[in-house]
Please model this.
Amino acid sequence: MNKILIVEDEPELRQLLASYLINDGYSVTEAEDGVEAISLFGRETFDLVILDIMIPKIDGYGVCEFVKKQSNVPVIFLSALDDEKSMVKGYDSLADDYVTKPFSMPVFLRKVKAVLRRDTSSSAEEYTKICYKDIVIIPDMAKVMVSGKETELTSKEFDILLTLIKNPGRVYTRERLLEMLWDYSAIVDDRIVDSHIKNLRHKVGEGVIETVRGRGYRVAQTDN
Model:
């Protein structure tokens, strides 16, 4: 069963789409804004994203860019923006189709089938993703995405963030991080860890890495 993510901030339309798609044999997950969509996409596997452009927090173009940077999952834009400039921008964002509102539901369902049929012939490589809140790490590509935007980290910043996020709730002392991530053949002041943590907080958000007084650093466990 194909799994589809619908990203639409109009509840009535979102529910109508979900109802038709479920009746057509698809599994459906719903999101009402760009941040929720990115969070869901980071945690779950989808075969198709149906995406409105004018959604809150992060618009459809930003969500599409996020999806396409780390996967080959097809995207169908569903938008009231029917001008040429918006449609060209949609296809430039690597959308697989662009449907303008209002639209025929039977025709739209056939477009969904056509896009999914095309996608079954794709053999693009998929990369392992490690997700924490709105952060997505792709270790094989040394890439970090925060709220859908790629964030540049130094190699040590990347190593620290990956270590903490792979083990949420676990406290790492400065000494332990130095032992794991630095070359002990060189003399390194353990305060260098504090400097990297400060830079990381600036880049990925102040609330991600917690200081456990007298012990070290961690990222909090999530409910997911």
Notes: The longest helix spans residues 105-119. The radius of gyration is 21 Å. The first strand starts at residue 3 and ends at 7.
